[in-house]
Design a protein that fits this description.
The complex is a heterodimer of chains A (175) and B (627). Chain A is 71% helix and 0% strand. Chain A starts with 6 loop residues before the first helix and ends with a helix. With 175 residues, chain A is mostly helical. Chain A contains seven helices and no strands. In chain A, helix 3 packs across helix 4, helix 5 packs parallel to helix 7 and helix 6 runs antiparallel to helix 7. Chain B has 627 residues and is of the alpha+beta class. Chain B folds into five domains: 185 residues, Nucleotidyltransferase, domain 5, CATH 3.30.420.40; 90 residues, ATPase, nucleotide binding domain (Nucleotidyltransferase, domain 5, 2-Layer Sandwich); 74 residues, Actin, Chain A, domain 4; 123 residues, Substrate Binding Domain Of DNAk, Chain A, domain 1; 93 residues, Substrate Binding Domain Of Dnak, Chain:A, Domain 2, CATH 1.20.1270.10. The chains are: A mainly alpha (175), B alpha+beta (627). The interface between A and B is medium-sized, with 25 and 38 residues.
């Protein structure tokens, strides 16, 4: 197992945004079966250390490829880009305004009458946006239009963060 | 290498001999040892047929310590030398222990490492030593029941155990001379005990609901084709069956208007009455609680406790467990309806009300056929059997997660997360830092574990200084701190300073309560000795490799040498073998590496011949697997 190769190659996939989650999980499980430290308990120290390194690499690879946002960022990084660079702050104005509006309604969520319905509708709105951005990214990336792809992935990051905050709020309100 | 694989049938001279391995549940109140015999996991009993070993050790002046029931008998008359519940002290510093405090009747002394030591007639004992004494008793039981030496053990730990507690457990095993095959989380072990993966059709999501005396653990696992994958663990480390007893006792006190200020004997009386009532109500719907033997002066009338009343008292406590369960399901991104199986663990899940509530939550029956006190040890035994290499083919594999987030202290006493909890392990993550002053040559690194934002609220695992950074302008140095967590959930931190070609690294094993000064000294020593350490390690590694290759080839020659090789060919290999042995006994790892390579070259043709030979055998009607 070569742990310097890119994450797609280690699962025998081509560098592409479209990934079949079921197939990915299956290959991940097969590679774990083969390389997990549990398979090297009676082997030498260096074999065991190597197994830990390989499995850590596989876990990182799987975590990256199984989430659309991380996968998108990773694909751009393979192109030598850095979509998360702190200097990278340019965003379209209409998108930012929309984000501010969403954020405000999230903050008001805990005071509204029927938070669950509100949260559900916001969640489905976010999910819809996310899947739109994902197909935008896939198309732009497929055409090697990396600038557009970068904008989509950065928008997607906003949406994913908002979804996480919504989940956290939901958890706090349900507890 | 082909040669190795062919020459070593099952790595042992007797390929079909079973390796003896056990699973150990090292519990707070009692411990168990279990093993797989004729395909079945079973807990092992002592000569009197007792399975549970009370986790109690009594130290004597000039004799070996007593462990178990013998020791338990002296909890009252020799309280200062009889240690119980030592699991609660594992991986804890003297300050933590003082906070746990008054309930423990021992004389604690802080050692220079900040570890609490118990002052007994047989000298100062650390929690690690006490646990090692319990482990020794369990291993002896294992060896005498199984009739041979053990190759190792799987030892279970609570899922919420932090790095220091895990490390302390592993140290105890080392002290007891046990090879630890794996530290396994208790809920994962319980899920494995049912052998659900043996049914090919069976796959899905499993919840393990573990309610003990003082802790509650919930784990969500996914099982698919023999692989158990922990999706999330959670719980409440201050919730358990003891809370039931306290709630019942408090209700009795109020009903009978007993004053709130109670002596120890009176408190114990109420708790004992509560426990007795709780157990009786498993069979009957109502019971009379008698105050006849009340230790105080006052007299109180008997009190009726119905099951309905008890349920009302228990429900608020069970509610907490239900909430923690829902939270963990959310962490795992799993819906209630997705859960296919519910495994019940821990003595407090015997409570009918707990069973009713959990079945009600998941809307399905629970798995309760295995004794909830033994299920963890049985699962550990199955895992030990697999790790010892006693099973073949599509094997059981357990994939665990990090129970608590790991991070580093940053400016202002804040914690910066490096690895989030519930990340699958093994895992490695690196974070880069830089210097903030011109000419800065050192940097303090403080490793923490926990979910809180502030350093003071998290558990401090270790602190060390990174020294020897070449002086340069602020922000120019690049320091990469790497966290690596292995399959046991144990952390290794290395700090590496990457500048113009200058790189060095140190390894810090986090320790429970080692003083800052000691850690700093350790680091300093390893920092200056880093080159020595590295070449010493390479030397050892190469020697091991040389030995393995040498043994494999000697064995291959003995088996097939005369049959497949001319005497001249044999002579070439034997000459090379002598050179390998000479290099192996020297101190130059480069020289050994070179001879290993030469040896491999010299024996390549022989390996190929053996391969051809075995293929011929395979064609003669044998499968390759059987060779």
């Amino acid at each position: 197992m070569d742990i310097s190769q890119d994450y797609f190659s280690c699962y025998g996939l081509s560098c592409d945004f479209a990934v079949d989650p079921v197939a990915l999980r299956q290959s991940h499980r097969q590679l774990q079966q083969q390389h997990h430290p549990d398979r090297f308990v009676s082997k030498s120290d260096s074999d065991q250390r190597r197994a830990v390194q390989i499995t850590a690499y596989l876990n990182q690879a799987y975590a990256t490829l199984s989430e659309p946002l991380k996968r998108g960022i990773y694909l751009l990084q393979l192109q030598g880009m850095d979509p998360l660079a702190p200097t990278n702050t340019q965003m379209p104005m209409d998108f930012l305004l929309q984000q501010i509006e969403l954020r405000e309604s999230l903050e008001e969520m805990s005071q509204v009458q029927n938070p669950e319905t509100q949260m559900d509708s916001m969640s489905s709105r976010l999910q819809h946006q996310a899947s739109q951005l994902e197909s935008e990214f896939a198309q732009a990336y497929g055409l090697s239009n990396f600038e557009i792809a970068e904008t989509s992935v950065r928008k997607l990051q906003f949406i994913v963060k908002l979804q996480q905050q919504l989940d956290a709020l939901e958890g706090a309100l349900l507890d | 290498m082909a040669l190795l694989q062919i020459a070593e049938p099952g790595q042992s001279a007797k390929p079909h001999q079973r390796k003896l391995a056990v699973g150990i549940d090292l519990g707070t109140t009692h411990s168990l040892v279990a093993s797989v015999r004729s395909g079945q996991a079973e807990t092992l009993a002592n000569s009197r047929g007792e399975h549970l070993l009370p986790s109690v050790v009594r130290y004597l002046a000039d004799e070996l310590p007593q462990v178990g029931i013998k020791a338990q008998a002296h909890l009252v008359d020799d309280a200062a030398n009889t240690v119980m519940s030592v699991k609660r002290l594992m991986g804890r510093g003297i300050d933590d222990v003082k906070r746990l405090g008054e309930s423990m009747p021992y004389l604690f002394e802080a050692c220079d490492q900040g570890m609490p030591l118990i002052n007994t007639v047989s000298g100062l004992k650390s929690p690690v030593q006490v646990s090692a004494d319990i482990l020794r008793a369990l291993v002896q039981r294992g060896e005498s029941s199984l009739g041979g030496e053990l190759v190792g053990a799987v030892i279970t730990v609570p899922a919420y155990f932090d790095d220091a507690q895990r490390q302390a457990t592993k140290d105890a095993a080392q002290l007891a001379g046990i090879q630890v095959l794996r530290l396994l989380n208790e809920p994962t072990a319980a899920a494995v005990a049912y052998g659900l993966e043996q049914d090919q059709q069976e796959q899905g999501t499993i919840a393990v609901f573990d309610l003990g005396g003082g802790t509650f653990d919930i784990s969500i696992l996914r099982m698919e084709q023999g692989v158990f994958e922990v999706l999330a663990t959670g719980g409440d480390s201050a919730l358990g069956g003891d809370d039931f007893d306290h709630a019942l006792a408090e209700w009795m006190r109020q009903e009978r208007q007993i004053p709130a200020q109670l002596g120890l004997a009176e408190q114990r009386f109420l708790l004992r009455l509560a426990r007795a009532g709780k157990e009786l109500l498993s069979d009957v719907c109502s019971t009379e609680l008698s105050f006849n033997d009340w230790p105080g002066d006052a007299t109180y009338a008997d009190l009726e406790l119905t099951r309905e009343r008890m349920n009302l008292l228990l429900d608020p406590i069970i509610d907490k467990a239900v909430r923690a369960t829902k939270r963990t399901l959310r962490d795992a991104k799993v819906a209630l309806g997705d859960i296919a199986r519910i495994v019940m663990v821990g003595g407090s899940t015997r409570s009918l009300r707990v069973q009713e509530r959990v079945a009600d939550l998941f809307q399905q029956p629970l798995l309760t056929d295995i004794d909830p006190d033994r299920v963890v040890a049985l699962g550990a035994a199955r895992q030990a059997d697999v790790l010892a290499g006693n099973q073949s083919g599509e094997e059981l594999l357990l994939l665990d997660v990090l129970p608590l987030s790991l991070g580093l202290e940053t400016m202002g006493g804040l914690v910066e997360r490096v690895i989030d909890r519930n990340t699958p392990i093994p895992v490695a993550r690196a974070q880069e830092f830089t210097t903030y002053q011109d000419g800065q040559t050192a940097m303090a690194i403080h490793v923490l574990q926990g979910e809180r934002e502030l350093v003071q609220d998290c558990r401090s695992l270790s602190r060390f200084d990174l020294r020897g950074i070449p002086a340069m302008a602020a922000g120019a140095a690049k320091i990469r701190v790497t966290f690596q967590v292995d399959a046991d959930g144990l952390l290794e931190v290395s700090a590496r300073e990457l500048t113009s070609g200058v790189a060095a690294s140190v390894q810090v094993k986090p320790s429970y309560g080692l003083s800052d000064v000691q850690i700093a000294d350790m680091i300093k020593a390893s920092w200056t000795n880093v080159e020595d350490d590295r070449s010493a390690r390479s030397l050892r590694e190469q020697q091991v490799e040389a030995d393995r290759l040498g043994e494999a080839i000697t064995m291959a020659l003995a088996e097939d040498g005369a049959r497949l090789l001319t005497s001249q060919q044999q002579q070439v290999i034997e000459n090379q073998m002598q050179q390998l042995v000479v290099a192996r006994n020297g101190h130059d790892h480069h020289a050994i590496a070179k001879q290993i390579e030469e040896m491999a070259k010299a024996s390549d043709a022989f390996a190929a011949m053996r391969m051809d030979d075995s293929i011929k055998l395979a064609l003669a009607g044998k499968s390759v697997d059987q060779l």
